Each structure stands twice: as structure tokens, then as C-alpha cells.
Amino acid sequence: xxxxxxxxxxGNFKQIYLLYGEERYLKNQYTTRLCxxxxxxxxxxxxHFYQGKDFSLGQVIDLAETLPFLAERRVMFFKDxxxxxxxxxxxxxxxxxxxDTTFFVFTESEVDKRSKLYKAVQxxxxxxxxxxxxxxxxxxWIAGILGKEGKKISENTAQLLxxxxxxxxxxxxxxxEKLICYCLDRDVVTAEDVEAVCTTxxxxxxxxxxxxxxxxxxxxxxxxxxxxxxxxEPPMRVLFLIARQCNLLLQTKELKNRGHDNKTxxxxxxxxxxxxxxxxxxxxxxxxxxxxxxxxxxxxxxEAVKSGRMNDMMSVEILILSVLPx
Length: 326
Known about the structure:
By secondary structure, this protein is an alpha/beta fold. It folds into three domains: 2-129, 3-Layer(aba) Sandwich (Rossmann fold), CATH 3.40.50.300; 135-197, Orthogonal Bundle (Helicase, Ruva Protein, domain 3); 202-322, Up-down Bundle (Zinc Finger, Delta Prime, domain 3), CATH 1.20.272. It is built from 16 helices and seven strands. The chain has helices at 2-10, 24-38, 57-64, 89-95, 116-124, 135-148, 155-165, 169-182, 191-197, 202-214, 218-230, 235-257, 262-269, 273-283, 288-306, 312-322; strands spanning 16-20, 47-51, 74-79, 102-108, 126-129, 152-153, 188-189. Helix 3 links the parallel strand 2 and strand 3. The N and C termini lie far apart (51 Å). Keywords: DNA replication, DNA-directed DNA polymerase, Nucleotidyltransferase, Transferase. It catalyses: DNA(n) + a 2'-deoxyribonucleoside 5'-triphosphate = DNA(n+1) + diphosphate. This is DNA polymerase III subunit delta. Its EC number is 2.7.7.7. InterPro entries: DNA_pol3_clamp-load_cplx_C (IPR008921), DNA_pol3_delta-like_C (IPR048466), DNA_pol3_delta_N (IPR010372), DNA_polIII_delta (IPR005790), P-loop_NTPase (IPR027417).
């Protein structure tokens, strides 16, 4: 990120940029900044956008070979094409020696670092990975956004906000906009404000549901399920999230038993380090055998629904009741 900032500041750009990773907000922010820096305002003749896989690489290369029209450069933007996982060989060959006046900006969620296209970009351009930001970074970012609006937030209240929003910066940004409007005439954002206007992620409902299961409170678990249905969440999505939660708990429990620390566990199961403590606490309420059986039951429930042997809504109700630890 620092390299991109420096390139924009000096105007000394790489010909190819690859921005990838889980953090969409930062990827979009830096893609927009590169667009403004590389492209003349309103220049549709020399600025081109491609998304997904619905385009011809042959036509892209032909266009890349065309000199810009009354401009310094032609700029081509690609988003979520999947070319860095498969199908990018032809473009990789071209990027080994591209037209000097054509610039490329790729934005991807996932890449294969072994692919020819990744290696070509790494060799000729600049690669930036945008990972999920840690808790302290997010708290500083939250405080910074609110500070620009003349508002303050305590560390505990910022923590409460993160517990509701998760680490997705796009989601946090939307919730902060709601808070700023709600606290228009006040300079301190309180926990009561967060509780009043911020939306709780569905994954939090799932976490609470599994907690209720662990505490042998079937009625509470079912009520949380009915709340999700009232919010128009499809039963099969709820089933998927229950399965995901049980699988994360199983992995956390097994990795803890092997002596791994929270940072290592976070890396292996794909969650922020500050979330591992919650998973470890919840996992401690289940035997390993119960969690393994729960994951198995989730798979069997999905198969039963897809084969038409069970109704989707009822199947999740039965699952919630059947995975209660004995």
C-alpha cells in the first residue's frame, strides 16, 4: 500500500498493478485512487473496465496494442476475472513485453502464486495483498473516521461495534455512517448508540445459537433460528453457517489440543486472531466427538433437503435439537 501511495505521489507508476486479498474496502479504495491518478477525468476512450470472465483475451490484447487517443496512456482495469487461478496464460505471455503506453490494474479476491500470470505481474509490476485488518488497526481507523466528523468513541465501544460488524471494512463504514447520522448533535458515540442503530451480523446470531445448544437451551436456540427466518434468511444458508461454525470450533479445539497459539490458529482456520479466544471458549463446551458428529449431521441434513426427503425449514429445527450435547 505504501508503494502505491508513493507512486501516486510521485507520478512514477508501474505498468501493471495487482491488488488482491480478502479486504474489499481497501482494494476498492486503492483501485479508485489508481484510476484517478492514471486516467484523465472523463476519458472514456482510453479507460476500459472488465469484470468477471465475460470478455475475450484476444480482443483485450488487440486493444492493449492500440496507441492511446490524444492521451498519455491507455488504462485497463480487471476485476474478479479468476485469471490468476486459471486461464491467464495468454495474457501472461503478452505482459512479458506489453505496449509501453498501456497500463493494467487487476483486482482479485484470490490468486494462485504459482500461476504464470501472477509471476508475470510480479516480474513487471507491483503486487499488493490486502488482508483482513487486525483489531487494533480497525479501532484506530474507526476513531479516525469519527474524529473527522468531530466525534469520539471509547475503546470498549469500538470493540462492541466490531463484535456486531465483524472485520469487513465496507460493513464497518456503512455502520459508521449510520452512527454519525444518529449522533448528529453529540460528540461522543456511546455503547447505547451502537446497540440502537448497528446491525448485528448473521454470524453473531449463529454464534449465539451454538452457545444456546452448548448450554442445553433448545428453546433459545430455536428462537434465534426463528429470528433469522423473520429476517428472511434462507434455512439452507442458516444450515451452511451452523456447519461452518461447528467446523471452526472443531478445528480450533484440535489445534488448541496440539498446543498452537491463537495467532497460528487464526492463520490456519482463516479468522482474525482476536476472534480465536471466543471460538476456543465456545469449543471447550463441546466434546470433540460431538463436534465431529455435528458436522456430519449438517452434511446429512443438506443431502436430505436436496434429495427432497426433508423440508428445509423443518430440517434445521431437527438439526438444532439433535446436536445438543449429551
